[in-house]
Amino acid sequence: MRHLLSAGDLSLAEVTGILDLAEEMAQVQARPVKKLPALRGRTIVNLFFEDSTRTRSSFELAGKWLSADVINVSAKGSSVSKGESLRDTVLTVAAMGVDALVIRHHASGAPGQAARWVDAHVLNAGDGTHEHPTQALLDAFTLRRHFRRTEPDRDTFAGKTIVLAGDITHSRVARSNVLLLRTLGAEVVLVAPPTLMPAGVGSWPVATSTDLDEVLPEADAVMMLRVQRERMSGGYFPTPREYTVGYGLTRARLGALRPGVAICHPGPMNRGLEISADAADAANSLILDQVAAGVAVRMSVLYQLLGGEDATPTSSRGDA
Amino acid sequence: MDAVDEHGEQSVQEASGLAETGTAASRLVMDADQIARACARMAHEVLEANRGADGLVVLGIPTRGVALAERLAAAMSEVEGVQIPVGSLDITLYRDDLRRHPTRVVGRSRLPAGVDDAVVVLVDDVLFSGRTVRAALDALGDLGRPQAVRLAVLVDRGHRELPVRADHVGKNLPTRADERVSVRLGEVDGVNEVTISPGPGEDSTGQNGTGQHSSRQNSTGDSPAGTDHPEERP
Question: Which pTM value belongs to this model?
């Protein structure tokens, strides 16, 4: 693996390898010394053009626990606010001799573009409404653990139905999850009001519905997506109240779920809008497990990309 | 598939499913009975040195070290009548040659008990350069502070590159540095034997199926800490 730009680039074997290694990395979180020497001497830059708490801090911790040097560059307080272009910013940072760039950007495709400009490994930490592959990986990690509680030998999600409900149009988490969950063999059902269902969803390898109550009884896991009001220019639904009635995971809808069905949310949550407090704090809610998995999964990904020999521009081996 | 001199096995398994057993070039140095007797003797030695089972934690280094650790712990538990904690300690992330090879697969670590103030018995199949043991000691140091660490290996083949020695040895096996020692254990390989085969200079088949041969040339990574590259030795 050279870069991690899309969850769709990963084969089933690669996904399984990342999740298995994340299980080992998760043990490090419980140790007195949370440090592994594997990435000693490597430098990772978190280049965040968009606000983030959990993704940036978990990438930072993941790098540090693997002994890499990690610095954070955010758009606020950097030359980006003076008008520097993405290309110049990326080239400037890369010129310092970094091994990996972790990029979050409001434009879809920005990390992919950056990967063409620099020799460093590029990790997509969320680009516009396109993809967020490490979020999909940590969701898969959390769900696999959940399924393994009752089926210890489960490696794939074959035979499982995962419902993703909410603002699909603006959700990079949904796109990455669809790709990854399909690789893992799950059946994916997307639920959204027609206004928040992306154009062209018919070509995705998923089933779609506009009726949450109809699909909930079949779900093995429910992933509620955040209503991204910052990406909306209005008009997607009449009122928040009406959205909740139609598409929120309310207390009443909890009763429609089969017992023990996993409830996920990538965060940050709009409590009372897409998810009720009863659902978020339910015994089968995995929302905090998802956060806890973030560091282990990102450690695993960083090791997969940076743990081997240098991929220099003259060597073709790293490009495979 | 073969365990190749300490820690080649993971990439070996990826490299090939062929078995080297029976090629004319390899020579049997321990059979199943000899391996069983060596394990039984080492189990008694460990208990004798420790004056019983108190505080013992047995940790195998994947892959075949884990199988050996389980055999040792089972033998000791039988003698002492108590359950001796046994687990695994993967050292991949502590290797000193990670940057010389494509990304290595990390094995499983499972600690059965805390290592603080315990007497940890590290178990591996082959002791060669000593670099694996160095990595294991570093890994242990991050897990806690054992009262003591002992080293038990099935085969000590010499050619140390670091000041490391084993406390308990199944068999001392004089070798040339370019020879290959392969340990196969029933739990992993379906057969119990230790064989030795000549280095690539004398192996004209070029396809001994273990990844040993190719590893010398393209560094597919089946050598312990880069020590299986005689040409790289200082």
Answer: 0.87
